[in-house]
Amino acid sequence: MTRKIILSVLGVLLVVASIFFAKTLIANKNTPKPFREKVVKTVSIDTVTNGTVPIIIPASGRLVAKSRIELYSEVQGVFKKGNKLFKPGQEFNQGEVLISIDASEYYAGVQSARSNLYNTISAIMPDLRLDFPEVYQKWQNYLNGFDLSKSTPKLPEMSSDKENYFITGRGIVSSYYDVKNLEQRLSKFVIYAPFSGILTEALVTEGSLVRAGQKLGEFINTSAYEMEVAISESYSSLLKVGEKVELNNLDKTVTYTGTVSRINGRVDPTTQTITTFIEVKDDSLKEGIYLEANLNAKQEENAIEISRSLLLEDNKIFVVRDSILDIIDVKPVYFSETNVVLKGVPNGTIIISKPVVGAYAGMLVKTLNDDKK
């Protein structure tokens, strides 16, 4: 009996709950859906005014001294101490002695050869007086001007074939050229600075034994430097020798003015670039410094320049027409690292000047003029 009562109560409760649940569903069905306000994005715009856009080609490179020499010894001997130390960083003026090698032993041999030439000519003077009196005085004057401590003077000009045969037959001409050869080699014991500059490398020190063919160091001219840059072949015809170039250090804190000094006539087959050399002069520059160059390659007429982030796929950009975004085709003519130069955009066209997240053609927008031209 108790069980029947419990089941009856549960049944009544279930019916009541069902009725309440049904009423709740009906009430919710009649509740109106919340209204979602449509969001209109605000975009920055710019009105197009076509004009002349300079195309600047960025490039970078390392400075190298325009004039430099590697110092090698052509003779052997002991490196003598000079007026200035032979050390990196030492400055030398044009004509000053860079390197002096002890040539005392070799100099004695040159003096001996000069003396032998003098004696040979002296020995033929009696024969010249008798057989060639018309040229005797010429050769006597030569002997009078012969100084063993100085470079051997040039032999007198031969007046006739007989004189030539006579002088040559005595071995004077061959002796003369032997002496000149020795004198030429003697001059190689001293190396003079061909220009004013600085020693950047020194591989020997005073007192060292220098051997023939040994590298001694490097000497550069600090008055002018060159920077080698690689330019795309498509812009090679736009660059001219003598064109001014703006150069900056990597920190963009110092600006220099350079000049295109040389343009290679060969295209690198691997990179399709042409090597261009830019000359720059400044007392603060040092060899090995990296600089960035901005080459004025071309003036593009009837064009505009915008950020590369505004260019869409398939060469299109967003424009605003009656507060609605639209897309037009454009013609890119040059890409820089951050910007792109475009042609084919009519004057007066309103374009967006900053990227819009989720933008699409037909999107309703509010405009904010950036006042950019």
TrEMBL record:
GO terms for molecular function: efflux transmembrane transporter activity. It comes from the Bacteria. GO terms for cellular component: efflux pump complex. Residues 70-216 form the Multidrug resistance protein MdtA-like barrel-sandwich hybrid domain. InterPro entries: MdtA-like_BSH. This is Efflux transporter periplasmic adaptor subunit. It comes from Confluentibacter flavum.
